[in-house]
Amino acid sequence: MNVIVKNGDEYLTLIGVIKRNQNKFYADIEVPSNIKLNDVITNIKGFYNDIGNLTLVYNKNISVSIHKDNPDIYIYTYEANFVISEYIDETKILIKSINLYYKELDYFFVEDKYKIDIENMDTQFTIIQKFKNEILFENDNLKIGYARTAGIKKDKFGHKIFSNPANLNVKFKRVISLSQMFEEIKKIENCFGFVINKKMNLIEINVLDNDNNYHTLIPIFQKQFEEIILDDFNIVDLNSKQLLKDILKSYYEDEHITSAINMFYEYIYNDLDNIFEFTSLVNTLELVLSNKKYVNKVREYALETNEELKNNNIKMNEIFNLISIEQQKFIKKFYDFENIMLRDKIRYLFYKLNDLEKNDLSEKYISAIINTRNYYVHGTKIRNKLNSINMVNTKFLLNNMLYLTIINACTKERNLLIETYKLSIPTVYDNILKYF
């Protein structure tokens, strides 16, 4: 069987075979000794039984070996970053819309109604389901909706399975490239994963190009349906849908929220080590409190409660009364009358937003959080640092606080998950201080 390989600017037709392991695709290519293939091949066209003609895109060489029967032939093996059905040019194809299926969404969009025909159950079993579709968000660039679909699929043993996935449909107001499409998919995963509060597992991507041709696209990070086992999670209620819509709107319209949700999802759901996860939580917290909903409130709180800042401002005003306006302007380049520190932000988070008890021990705990963060980020001297147990508990506390803080910046809606987080915070906080 032949494959067509784009080696630099040259197209080569060579003997090769396409292999698959789960969602990873490989090309084994027979190459004469007078030809050298590049380490990265952007485009390999071939055939695979279950798909037909397909294109392997952005392929990296993982091995080179000598043909067992001919020493003048080398076997180059490439691993594809993703494959797409039919032969395409990855630099020219333009995308009009995509359909995405994440398994977790089946647990979220479950409001469709079933009708079971019980009169003829002795001879047949009939279920009638009316599928609902709805627009979740729309702006000048795209429209995101969801819809239930149905069909028959086969598992890896060839058994027929009734499929009823909750698909997301994303229509682009202007066609986009493949690379832009993957950026949009990542945004959607981050935002939906944040709302559902789970790592999202992409099961299927279908693409409509600018010529109205449909393609199946399989990236290396895609999962098989049967390999994902989900724990039950209860997030389905009337408020959750509106909550999702509100967060999508904030995500696509507010850069602070976009960055905060991206950081939260990337850092919290990707098995990072304790230190990196801790510092990421603190950094994301600082970012969220810079949002327009919070920034003025944090400033006001700091100016009211930070005695050191108030005393410094009083002294600086006394100095300003003794110098010229020109000298005052010069000094203001180096002194900020509203110098809001990380300590002020954490105090606002603890004492104002979450109404937690303030005492000498809580102030010592806040100092330990700041010292630990500064030690790992800036390499400052170790003093009053969180131990490993306190760090784990602090991560849990900050994670819940941060989640609620982002939610509150986007919407007034509430669901069971949010209320559970809110109720957990005082208990976790008290237990940390008890053993601090």
Commentary on this structure:
- The chain is an alpha+beta fold and 436 residues long.
- The protein has 12 helices and 16 strands.
- α9 crosses α10 (360-378).
- The longest helix is centred in the C-terminal third of the chain and has 23 residues, at 388-410.
- It is globular and about 85 Å long.
- The model has no long low-confidence stretch (mean pLDDT 86).
Oligomer status: single chain
What is the helix fraction of residues, given as a range? 25-40%
**Shape by Cα distribution:** globular
Give the ordered list of helices and strands.
EEEEEEEHEEEEEEEHEEHHHHHHHHHH
Rounded mean pLDDT is 86
Q: Give the structural class.
A: alpha+beta
Distance between the termini: 67 Å
Main-sheet strand order equals 1-2-3-6-5-4
Beta-strand segment tally: 16
How large is the radius of gyration? 28 Å
Strand content: 25-35%
Mind describing the biggest β-sheet?
6 strands, antiparallel, barrel
Features:
436 residues, alpha+beta
Outline:
It is built from twelve helices and 16 strands. The protein is of the alpha+beta class and 436 residues long.
